[in-house]
Amino acid sequence: MKQFHLSVYTIAGFLLSLSAHAFDPFTVKDIRVEGLQRTEPGTVFNYLPVKVGETMTDEKAQQAIRALFATGFFRDVRLEVDSGVLIVLIEERPAIAQIDFSGIKQFDTAGLRRSLRELGLAESRIFDRALLEQAEQELKRQYLSRGLYGVEVQTTVTPLERNRVGLNFSVTEGDVAKIRGINIVGASAFREKDLLDEFVLRTPGWLTWYTKHDQYSRQRLSGDLESLRSFYQNRGYIDFNIDSTQVSITPDKKDIYITVNITEGEKYTVGEVKLGGQMLVPEAELAKLISLKQGEVFSRQKLTESTKAISDRLGNDGYAFANANAIPQIDKDKRTVAFTVLIDPGRRVYVRRINVAGNTKTRDEVIWREMRQLEGSFYDASKIQLSKTRVDRTSYFKDVNVETAPVAGSNDQVDVNFTVEEKPTGAMLIGAGFSTTDKLVLQGSVSQGNVFGSGKYLAVQVSSGKVNSVYSLSYLDPYYTVDGVSRGFDVYKRKIDASSLTVGPYRTDALGGGVKWGYPLSEKDSLSFGINAERVTLDTFTTSPVAYQTFVNTYGKDYSYVSGTAGWARDTRDSVIMPTAGTVQRVSSEVAVGKLQYYRVGYQHQYYRPLSRTFTLFLNADIGYADGYSNKPLPFFKSYYGGGPGSVRGFTASSLGPQDNLGNVLGGTRRLVGTAEVLFPMPGATQDKSLRLAAFVDGGQIYGEGQKMTLSDLRYSAGIALAWNSPFGPLKLSFAQPLNDKAGDRIQRLQFTFGTGF
Description:
Helices cover 17% and strands 43% of the residues. Strand 33 and strand 34 form a beta hairpin. It folds into 6 domains: 2-92, membrane protein fhac (Ubiquitin-like (UB roll), Roll); 95-172, Roll (Ubiquitin-like (UB roll)); 178-263, Ubiquitin-like (UB roll), CATH 3.10.20; 269-344, Roll (Ubiquitin-like (UB roll)), CATH 3.10.20.310; 350-422, membrane protein fhac (Ubiquitin-like (UB roll)), CATH 3.10.20; 499-754, membrane protein fhac: a member of the omp85/tpsb transporter family (Porin, Beta Barrel), CATH 2.40.160. The protein is α+β, with helices and mostly antiparallel strands. It contains 13 helices and 36 strands.
């Protein structure tokens, strides 16, 4: 028998010297495959370059062996010849029968199995030891990224019957290495503490168990170093340089120390700032966009904002790819830096097509109706940004991104691509909530803010509380007309039992409904109108204030009336969910006719201004006035009340204002409330938008009919508040200290609401 033998160990020698295994060409009478256990013979035949009746040569033998090895199925391949019969002897690689994990707590094993499958290791696949070593190293890398530098990974390969193997990853995770020290060497202009405040990485603190910011990450350190560079360059240190960074770990792999060596350089002021290049917009207009002024300390942030503002301004005129580059001229002797901003507008372009992707549930028309950039018109960066903002404000999407892409083969056309990520807009809630006002609230609701992807809102709500119980059905179509006129209605049954509050005891049972419309005046202004009909049954008690009992004796206990509402609103906030800049103004009015005849007018102004990257100033003023007409008084259950959450925190809810001789709060006809807050993220959780803190000062008062409004009567409080959109519902918590409480005031320093309020 002639043999032609090649294995994984001898294939290199074969390729170099075929003569050592050469045989004479022969006609193949038959082909026989031996050694297969799982692989089908047809797989081998497909890779053989010769068939029965054809001539077998050394070259074809070489091709056959290379092709069979390339499949990765076989550990060894031999070719033998016996009386014209070609015999292919195969030794298969083992298959993976099972993969097990032990000692893993940091990762989900289902996710690990998916990762291994992508790598090529999975049950029923061919076992490759090289892939196993890659998987082991990747697993270690994942642990290192979580600060577990003492991790040990051992892999065991267990042979099983039918040429199979079992794989076991045994992990000893060890303890998480914590950052015990961060040192900045070379800093003299600023305190090291102030510089470290720019870092996300930090030593262990009271919240790092949640944020994990005390665990080293190369990516986080890179971001922190860039923040440090920006800190210096925004304060005039143009030549600032990070010389080196050392990250060391103790021998027990539990503690990490970071040292950053820097050179601060000299502090520079701004010299002359000039404009150059092709200015298609009047130079005076572009000059106003430059926030970097001569004589000021240099700021890289202001320079970047200036060039971006110029590019955006040109983008509003259709120059989508306008570029503004600042060329510096540094005078080291005078420590000044001058700039020439060269403007290259590029070509004016049209928007060929606007594409929307990612909306699997929401109809295209719901997104398209928010577009302010039109296809076929000149590119306008401000309109595209406004379109993005309007789509985001629908609250149907978790994320909205927009990109501008050049059209292939055209130098004056672009496509604008909007990509949205939808979020659940429906909710079914059956549960309980608690507030310092309503106490225990049993509630259930079914709501859908985007019914069948149409953008319409529908909600059925049920709430049973000690003070308020509500049963309501609400509907709103934000685009009742194509012009953006909205229409909605409400039907409700509401009971209020004030006997447990600080106000004089009474009880109302109301059944009503109404229709409302909204009319947009501009992108920021809107008008609203509504009409509502209600029937109210009023009950008082022997302990009710005399004024309450007198009202019932005079006008009865059953009231049917119709009220009309009108309002104006202007909203310039940069975000609805987490605003940092802009204002909100609202004017509201209500007039009632029928058995009850009264009117109410109000004005609210909210103001947001960023103080820094993380701190935002929030100011709020709320003024209201109400009275009766046609010789009828304002119904006492339509009066204003103050104190508690949403008013002056630190004072018991509805406790401010006029009182009778027994200490019952009567409410008032005028309301004056103001708030000043500094909003900031939870320390150590700056990226968590669901969690926000505020340091506040509240002031306000309720004034009765005939009572003079004097600022000396205002009550003030100061404190700190937390707002958290938790997975279980919104939570608001405040701790306030009254600053000028008087005798008879009711104090409640800790106040919170949890759950859904109506």
